[in-house]
Amino acid sequence: MANKAIGMIETKGFVALFSGCDAALKAADVSMTGWESVGSGMVTAIFEGDVASVKAGIEAAAEAAKTIGEVVSVEVIARPHEDLGKMGSFLPS
């Protein structure tokens, strides 16, 4: 994960997340590393790339997802610790 950032968006409802992911991938040079169903209708997608691209992608995702459903939270981690990759196969390693 050296010199990369990770970004996450959590929405209530898969359709909102799907729309947000589409917007993020079109708006910025990011890669989607995976998604997880959190439960109670909440789903989270994870992206990676350089810091500026991840910030731009997550902002675009949140704007698009808001038009369809509820955005629960967003987060960008600029220089994640390498051990974060051990948390799950959906995180970049």
TrEMBL record:
Entry-linked Gene3D superfamilies: 3.30.70.1710
Start and end residues of each BMC domain: 5-89
Keyword Glycoprotein: no
Compartments, as annotated in UniProt: Bacterial microcompartment
Primary residence: other
InterPro entries the UniProt entry points to: BMC_dom, BMC_shell, CcmK-like_sf, CcmK/CsoS1_BMC
SMART domains: BMC
Keyword Transmembrane helix appears in the UniProt entry: no
Keywords: Bacterial microcompartment
GO cellular component labels: bacterial microcompartment
Domain of life of the organism encoding this protein: Bacteria
Record family assignment: Belongs to the bacterial microcompartments protein family.
Annotated protein name in UniProt: BMC domain-containing protein
Species assigned in the record: Puniceicoccus vermicola
